[in-house]
Amino acid sequence: MSKQVKQLDRVIIRFAGDSGDGMQLTGDRFTSESAVFGNDLMTLPNFPAEIRAPQGTLPGVSSFQVHFADHDILTAGDAPDVLVAMNPAALKANLGDLPRGAAIIVDTHDFTKRNLDKAGYDVNPLDLLGDANDPLGEFQVQPLDLTGMTVEAVKEFGLSRKDAARAKNMFALGLLSWMYGRPIDSTISFLEKRFAKVADIRDANITAFKAGWNFGETTEAFVVQYEIKPAPMSAGTYRNISGNLALSYGLIAGGVQSGLPVFLGSYPITPASDILHELSKHKAFGVTTLQAEDEIAGIGAAIGAAFAGSLGVTTTSGPGLALKSEAIGLAVMTELPLVVVDVQRGGPSTGLPTKTEQADLLQAMFGRNGEAPVPIVAPQSPGDCFNAALEAARIAITYRTPVLLLSDGYLANGSEPWRIPEIADLPTIDPAFATERNQTVTAKDGTEVEEYWPYLRDEDTLARPWAIPGTPGLEHRIGGIEKAKGTGNISYDPANHDYMVRIRQAKVDRIADSLPPLEVDDPSGEAKVLVIGWGSTYGPIGAGCRRVRKAGYNVAQVHLRHLNPFPKDLGEILKRYDKVLCPEMNLGQLSLLLRGKYLVDAIGYNQVNGMPIKAAALADAIGGLVAEAEGVTVDLTPQEASQ
Amino acid sequence: MTTSTELPFPGLRSGVELVPTNDQPQTGKEYTSDQEVRWCPGCGDYAVLKAVQGFLPELGLRRENIVFVSGIGCSSRFPYYLDTYGMHSIHGRAPSIATGIATAREDLSVWVVTGDGDALSIGGNHLIHALRRNVNMTIMLFNNRIYGLTKGQYSPTSEAGKITKSTPMGSLDHPFNPVSLALGAEGSFVARTIDSDRKHLTSVLSAAAAHRGTSFVEIYQNCPIFNDGAFDAIKNNDTKADAIIPLVHGEPILFGNGSKGLVRDTETGGVKVALVADVGQDAIMVHDAHNTDPTTAFAISRLTDSGYLNQSPIGIFRQVERPTYDDGARGQIASAQQAAPGEPQDRLAALIGGGDTWTVV
C-alpha cells in the first residue's frame, strides 16, 4: 500500500507509560534515531522519584518528550503534537498538556476495569470515541492493541507472556519510527548489544521493533507518513548528549587540560548520581571516584585531594549542597581549587527529586557563614554542560577557589545534538604549583632567610600559591581559622581579618577580568525590552524571543554563564534597555541579585512547578512588556508556529 | 542482580613503604614549627606533641611527605606546631579530608589528630567509615573525656552522671568505649596508650605508622582545667599496677604485679579478670593482636571502666593485615591506565567523539 508523505518542519512526541514500561529507553532510542537522521532536537524526560511507583497509577506515570525539527530549536516544546499512551493513567496524566487536534496513540490492552479504576476513570474513554460526549473528541485518537500485537509477533521465542509483553515499548517505537521515517539501524544494533547475553529477549525486542514498523507500513489505520528534513547545522561532527554526560566529560577535560588527576568525592543523589557513575568508568584518565559515607565526606575527601594536588570535585543536588556548606567555607578560607557541582532539583528539603528548578542560586551565592564568596558558573543547555564544567575547572585552578557549577534536572537528563569540540580548541589550564620559597625575611640574628608564605598573592589574579605535599622546603599549615596576610599563620588581629575578608572578595571579583564580553542578541538593535536569564531557561527564553520577533516586534536577549562575579559589561547592558525581564524557575533569585547590584528594575517571570518554562506563555509576557515599553499593541498570533 | 569481582590484595606492606625516605639524620627541632604553642599549662597535649616531635625523625621519612590533618578542638591545633604539611580543618571531618589526601597520593604519610568530641560525636560517621575502608593513615584520638575548647561540657566518652556545665543534674548519656567502637568498625590496627607514658606512646605510634591501613590510637589525655584527674588511677604509682591491663602480643595478659590476669569467661564467652592464685598461670590468656577474628580483642576492650576509670587495658588490641582502600583505588586506576595507552588528549578526543556520531559538511 503506498502511503501519502507529508512534510512537517517540526514535531513534538511524548511517550508515556508506567514506570516499568521502558518509556525512557523508548524516548532515548527515538532521539538517537532522530539525531543520526540529522534533525535538531531537544528532549525532556519526566519520571517519578519512586523506582516503581504502584503500577497503573497516576503517580507511576513516566514520560519522555522529544522535539525534533528541520531547523534550529531551543526547547523540548511546550505541548506534544503526538502522545503515545501505554495505559489509562498515562493517558489521563498527559491529556491536559495536549493542544486541540493532537494525535493520541493508545495501547488499548491495559484499559481494563482495574487499570481504569486506578487511573480514576469511571467509564472507559475509549468506549466513548465518536459519541456526542466523547471526552477525547478534540483529539485524533488511534486505539491499538500494541501489547496484543507484540505478544503475537514474538510468540516464536517462547517467552512468558509477561516477558513477551515487555517488548511492547519496542513495538511502539517501531511504529513511530515508521511514521516519522526514522533510520532504524542504530536501534537494532543497540538492542543487539544491550541484550547480547539473553538471545531470546534480544530477538523478541528486535522482532517487536520491526513488527511495529511493518504494522505502520501495512495497516490502514495510518495513511500518512511524515517527513521532517534534517536541520542545517554548522559543519562538524555531532553526537547526541545529555547534560550529565557532557558535564562528566567536561570534568575529565578539566583534568586533561590542566594535567591534574581528577578526584571526585560524592554521595549518590538524584539527579546528580549519573555524573558519579560516568566518572567512575574513566579511571584510565586518572580519575578517582570515592563514593563517600555522606555528602560532607564527599566534599571533605575532595578538599583533601585538592590539598594533595588533584582537581577536587564533588557532585550533588540542593539538599547535599546544604550539607556541604561548612566545607565549602573551609575551601574558601584555605583557598584550594574545588569544583562543586549542584544539579538543582525542586526544593526545599527533599522537594521534587526528579523535577527541575533553579532555586539554589542564592544558596550557591550566600549559603555559608561569614563573607564567603564563591564563583558561580551555569550551563545553558545539555551540551553546554561540557564547556561550563571546563570553565569551572579553569576558574577553580587559576584562582585557587571553590567554584559552584549550577546545572539542573532538565539539563542533566535532557539531551541535544552536540558538536564535538576539537581538543586543540579547548583552553589549557596551568596549575602553576609552587616549587620555591617566595619570601625573604630577616631572622633574629640579622641573617636573611628564605621562607614559604602560603598567603602571598599573584598581582593579577590575587590567587595564592599552591604548594603540594612532597615539595621540599614549602611545608606549611592551612586551616579554617583566619589567616594572617602573607604568612598564613593564625591571626585574630581585627585589621587583618578586615583585610582578608576584602581580599577574598576582591579575588573573586577579579575573575571578571578574565571573562569575555557578554553577547547581547538584539537583531534589530532597536529593542527596548531585554530578557535576561541564566542556566537552562536559555532555551525557553530564546524560543520566546523568537516568537515575539517573528510577530514583528523587537526584543533583546542576554544569557549569563557567570553569576558570580557578573561580567563587567552587565551593568552597562542593563542600563541600555527600558525594561528588563528576568524569567527563572524560582521566585526571583537572579532578579534580586540584579536589583541589589545594579539598582535596575528587573521584572520577574517566575515559575516553580518542576517543569521547564513554556515558550509560548513567556512570549506573552515579553509581548506585554514590549507593549508597555513601546506604547504599541502587541499581537503574537503566530503566522507560522515555529520556535 | 548483583555481581562482584575478586579484588587483588597487594600483600603485606609497611604503612610508609611508598613514602620517600631521608638519608640525613633528622632532629625533633626540624619538626618544630615557629608557632607558639597555646595549650593550657599542664595539658596532656604537650606530652603527646613532644613525643611525636621526638619519634617522627626516627621514622626517617622526608619531612615534606608527612601530612597532619585535624578537626576542631584543643588537640586539633596540633598541626600548627609541627613543621610538616598540615591542615586544621572543620569539626569532625578530618578523617574524610585525610581519606582524600591518602587516596590521592601514595607517597604521603598521613596523620589525623582528633579528640573525643571531634571523632566520636560530630565526626563519628567519618571515623567508622575510615576504619572500615582501611585507608592508610594513623588516627590519634586524644581522649580527655570532656569538651575543653567549648569550656567544659560532657563528651561522648564522659561517664554517665557526670556533672558539667550542660548537665547540672548529671549526664544521661551512656559513653562510647572508643576501642570497642573501632573494633566494631573492623579497624585493622586498634590501640590505646597514655599521654604521660612517653615510652609506651612512642612505641604504639611507631607501630601505628608502620601499619598499612587505618591505625587507630586512643590516647588517654588529661585536661587539667575541665576534667583533671580523670586518669589518676592509671597514672598514680600506687594504683596503676591494678588499673592498667597491659597488652603485649605474645605475652600472657597479667597485671596487679602478676597477681591478676585475663581468662576466658566460659559462661558469657567473653573475657574476665581472675586471680592467678585461683586459676593458675596456664589459664591466663596470651595476647594475640594478630588474630583475624576481632571477637577476643573486643571482649578485652569491654574490661574498660565506663564510669570513673579504675581499670583499662592498654596497648595494641588488634593489628591485622587487610586490603586498604587507597591501595585498591590506585590499583584500579593503574590497571585501567595500562589497558588504555596513549596520550591523554588523544584519548579525550576518542572519548567525547564516541557513541553514535554524524558529520555535517
Keywords:
heterodimer; A: 643 residues; alpha/beta; 7-stranded mixed beta sheet; 6-stranded mixed beta sheet; 20 helices; 24 strands; 35% helix; 20% strand; globular; B: 361 residues; 8-stranded mixed beta sheet; 3-stranded antiparallel beta sheet; 12 helices; 12 strands; 30% helix
Helix content of chain B: 25-40%
Rg of chain B, nearest Å? 23 Å
> How many strands of chain B?
12
Q: Report the strand count of chain A.
A: 24
**Which residue ranges of chain B are poorly predicted, with pLDDT under 50 across at least 5 consecutive positions?**
none
Neighbour order of strands in the largest sheet of chain B: 2-1-3-4-6-5-11-7
Low-pLDDT ranges of chain A:
none
Question: What's the pLDDT, averaged over the residues of chain A?
Answer: 95
- Shape call of chain A: globular
Q: Briefly note the structural class of the backbone of chain B.
A: alpha/beta
Please tell me about this protein's structure.
The complex is a heterodimer of chains A (643) and B (361). Chain A contains 20 helices and 24 strands. In chain A, the strands form 6 sheets. Chain A has a 7-stranded mixed β-sheet, with helices on both faces. Chain A has a 6-stranded mixed β-sheet with strand order 3-4-2-5-6-7, with helices on both faces. In chain A, strands 21-20-23-24 form a 4-stranded parallel β-sheet, with helices on both faces. In chain A, strand 23, helix 19 and strand 24 form a beta-alpha-beta unit. With 361 residues, chain B is an alpha/beta fold. In chain B, the strands form 2 sheets. An 8-stranded mixed β-sheet of chain B has the order 2-1-3-4-6-5-11-7, with helices on both faces. A 3-stranded antiparallel β-sheet of chain B has the order 8-9-10. In chain B, strand 5, helix 6 and strand 6 form a beta-alpha-beta unit. Chains A and B meet through helix 1, strand 9, helix 9, helix 11 and helix 12 of A and strand 1, strand 2, helix 2, helix 4 and helix 11 of B. Strand 9 of chain A pairs antiparallel with strand 12 of chain B.
